Amino acid sequence: MNTNENHSFRLPAEWEPQSGIILIWPHEDTDWRPYLNEITEVYLQMADAITRFEPLLITVRDTEKVHSLLAERLTEGQIKRVTLFACDNNDTWARDVAPISLVSDKEPKGSLQALRLLDFCFNGWGEKFAAEKDNRINRQLYEAGLLQGVLENHKDFVLEGGSIESDGDRTLFTTTGCLMAPHRNQPLTQEGIDKRLRLFFPNVERVVWLDYGQLAGDDTDGHIDTIVRVAPNHTLLYIGCDDKEDEHYEDFRLLEEQLKQLRTIDGAPYRLLRLPMPDAIYDNGERLPATHANFLIINGAVLVPTYNQPEKDKVALDIIQEAFPDREVIGIDSRTIIRQHGSIHCLTMQLPLNG
């Protein structure tokens, strides 16, 4: 039984109505420096796609420079949907830095009390990278009045947005590889973490732990948003691997078997949609974690990473369109993003609508 005092709140599914998207803009003192022009172009493409459908909140180090770049690319109407906030950062992975939002179906719609913004600790995926500046972003946005809702401090618990998936109802999905990885929340056991998750997210009655599906080159220890995504109508999109010579083959075969055994909270099998494993992409001899599963759902559209692999890109886009038939599916070349071991979903965080 959930005893959280915020029992009227729930973690919405990503496809529910949104009030905006958060981005953290790259600059020359981030790891993007060697290809800053290339990643800036990707950000401009994302900004263009997002602002066609909803507002965009961007934290930036140089607001004038970024505004000029956006003004050259976006229409006047799109620019009006952009808010720039001057704020320093270590890196740009908004998915794991920005607050995880809860919505209330009982509080008055449009009121600040209808949203809870959970501010967890981001520690660079288990203390691999510096994150002290990133950890201050949410508080700065909140104090500037740019986050609507009530900010809750949960800095005593490490939780990254990319490590969980919600169906908006009663089930939360995660991976044992990530949440049980070193330097996260030791000495908590899996049982202890499971209990904490159900307290943080009051609507969640069960946590589904996936045990397989680790992508080569992934810094996150296995974020679920790189391998399995939740869609409406009890649908799970997941990465499959057909090449028996691929290093991923056996692990992703076991993932597929685990997914086939899963049942919804009401006892029915999930509708499974299988996405192709992109052909291997290397950077200086290191395999990069290319995946079509790291898509972003926004109001009216889905932004999908592509990798200049026409056949597999098309298959992935068509399957994601099948999962989201009422949304426009927009492919964005993500070969530059994966050079820093993430993709579109990793760079973004949605803010739910509270009215």
UniProtKB/TrEMBL annotation:
| InterPro entries per record | Peptidyl-Arg-deiminase_porph (IPR007466)
Q: Which Gene3D superfamilies match?
A: L-arginine/glycine Amidinotransferase, Chain A (3.75.10.10)
Q: Which PANTHER family match?
A: AGMATINE DEIMINASE-RELATED
User: Pfam families from the xrefs?
Assistant: PAD_porph
Q: What is this protein called?
A: Agmatine/peptidylarginine deiminase
Q: What Gene Ontology biological process does one annotation of this record name?
A: putrescine biosynthetic process
Drop me one GO molecular function for this one.
agmatine deiminase activity
